[in-house]
Specification:
This protein is of the alpha/beta class. The protein is built from twelve helices and 24 strands.
């Protein structure tokens, strides 16, 4: 017997669950111009050994069906779902199959789903509706039918989608999720900056932009991130360097191509790669140059970050770079980094490194991920990016223009995108960023297909933790398709829904006030909203958003 049900996209559906474990989603509202997600879950309880093999095609009907697409939610083997420190709201913490990959529907050239793989297993169809800004307001019925190969309808489910007569505002929040170009060259086995490499990079950048990314990490030099001390990552350096005696000259042909790509895909901001090594700022990134006709490394782990030669190089490069970007009219798109994630013990080294570049970049934003308030208090970092589990002190002290981030260390109570975390927790960061006027969000792993310190490639379909380095889901959010395109995990649209929540709440604020919108959110939660107070259920997360939509609807 075929069982089906439409449920929220905030639920993660495991193969060993039952349709009865989930609440039916019969109604949901959205704004014009919004991308809405929901799921159809299905199972076949006929476990007879002689049962017929069935392949079903999803058919969507209704006047907004033309805006909808479908993908299959694939169960992925996860061996390291959680590190040793976690909380009771993780869905599961033992190895097993977890729902994560959103896969195109395809069988013999047709869009079909199969129900013959595992008798009794519960599966999910991901339905995404991209509402245009000119869609008719009002309640629309969307019917989801499953038809067999003969055309017979085997199941029908319906959901009402209430389109509010207001357009979702454009995204103001800056969002960067680091694209690792070396991972793409190595995974697909193509030369760095070959035409095929560029094609793959652009494919990934388009998916990133679709997911809300509007700032792209730009590797003017090979990234000084997650690299073993003394080790190297594959050279992916956009700026050509020549050294003639004690003079440096720079070539920007590859950077031009990069910026042109950014313009094509819709990137607004350029995040210039770090000038100093991670976790201390005591050495230089890997920098390659042509010296007397030989292409070789001139700076790296053996470089004293505060030595005269590297200072001279940075001054020469930054002046040249800014002049070039000004001529292009792109200099104000640039944001800069010193070193990633310095701690209190490294404060003085970071301070020395910052001084080397600060004067040249006085008219630009210099920002870094860090969690110690001392860097801001002492005026060393004017634009700190604290992690969401250390942000409260920055909020308490009313830091303006605040960003936030999370990575593998943010494991308890706060939002993150780990595979073992519920989706409503991943989405919760949207309402949190709205309340606290967060202007930017950073995540380090759009496609980091490597283990700790970039020693080896991993197979992302079998390992999402960098070989048991961090909780599964931290290192990447998209899977590499064989054709060089990126396949989204379900964590991508879930986080994007959080970004849409921010935009809807900003619209609501324009009709009411900030205090009224926050009060409405907290009224649904029943307590104060903080970065360690996430939604505790799919229903609670949806109630918050429905409240915001109802307030908007009441004013238009």
């Amino acid at each position: 017997m075929l069982k089906t049900k439409i449920i929220s996209s905030m639920e993660k559906v495991f193969a060993d669950q039952k349709t009865e474990d989930f609440c039916t989603l019969s109604y949901i509202s959205a704004l014009k111009g919004e991308r809405l997600s929901l799921q159809l879950i299905y199972s076949d309880d006929n476990d007879s050994p002689d049962r017929a093999r069935v392949r079903l095609a999803p058919v969507l009907e209704g006047d907004i069906a033309k805006y909808a697409t479908t993908r299959s939610v694939k169960q992925i083997p996860v061996t390291y779902p959680a590190e040793f420190v976690y909380d009771e709201e993780y869905l599961r913490t033992t190895p097993g199959l977890f729902p994560d990959l959103l896969s195109p529907l395809s069988y013999d050239g047709r869009a079909v789903i199969g129900l013959d793989a595992i008798p009794g297993a519960l599966s999910s169809l991901w339905i995404e509706i991209d509402l245009p800004t000119d869609v008719q307001a009002g309640v629309h019925k969307l019917a989801v039918k499953l038809t067999d190969e003969s055309g017979e309808v085997r199941a029908v489910e319906e959901v009402e989608i209430d389109v509010i007569n207001a357009v979702l505002p454009e995204q103001k929040l800056i969002f960067t999720q680091w694209l690792h170009c070396d991972s793409l060259a190595e995974y697909y086995n193509v030369p760095a900056w070959s035409d095929r490499h560029w094609e793959i990079i652009e494919n990934y950048a388009r998916v990133a932009v679709r997911s809300g990314v509007n700032m792209l990490l730009t590797p003017v030099f090979t990234l000084a991130l997650d690299t073993a001390i003394g080790g190297e990552r594959l050279t992916t350096q956009l700026v050509g360097v020549k050294k003639n005696g004690d003079r440096y000259t720079f070539d920007y042909k590859l950077l031009d191509r990069w910026i042109d790509m950014c313009d094509r895909v819709g990137i607004k901001y350029l995040e210039i790669s770090h000038f100093f090594t991670q976790w201390g700022a005591t050495h230089a990134p890997k920098i390659m140059a042509t010296v007397d006709g030989e292409y070789k490394r001139i700076f790296g782990w053996d470089t004293d970050a505060h030595g005269e030669e590297y200072k001279k190089f940075l001054h020469s490069f930054i002046k040249s770079f800014l002049n070039y970007m000004k001529k292009r009219g792109d200099d104000k798109r640039c944001y800069f980094h010193v070193s990633d994630e310095p701690n209190d013990e490294q404060l003085e080294d970071y301070k020395k490194s910052k001084r080397i570049v600060a004067g040249l970049l006085k008219d630009y934003v210099i920002m870094d991920a860090l969690s110690s308030y001392e860097f801001y208090k002492r005026g060393i970092v004017k634009t700190p990016i604290p992690s969401n589990d250390h942000i409260s002190k920055f909020i308490k002290n009313k830091v303006n223009g605040l960003w936030t981030y999370y990575c593998g260390g943010q494991r308890q109570w706060v939002s993150n995108r780990f595979i073992a975390m519920p989706s409503y927790r991943t989405r919760s960061i949207g309402m949190q960023m709205y309340k606290y006027d967060i202007v930017g969000f950073l995540h380090w792993g759009f496609n980091f297909y490597k283990n700790q310190h970039s020693c080896n490639l991993i197979n992302p379909y079998l390992d999402q933790s960098g070989e048991n380095w961090v909780s599964a889901g931290d290192t990447f959010s998209v899977y590499p398709a064989p054709d060089g395109t990126a396949l989204e995990s379900l964590r991508i649209p879930v986080f994007f829904s959080g970004l849409c929540d921010v935009r809807a709440m900003q619209l609501c604020e324009s009709l009411y006030s900030k205090a009224e919108v926050v009060a409405a959110i907290e009224g649904e939660l029943g307590e104060e909203l903080t970065f360690d107070r996430c939604a505790h259920s799919a229903d609670e997360m949806l109630r918050v958003r429905e409240k915001i939509n109802a307030m908007i609807k009441a004013k238009i």
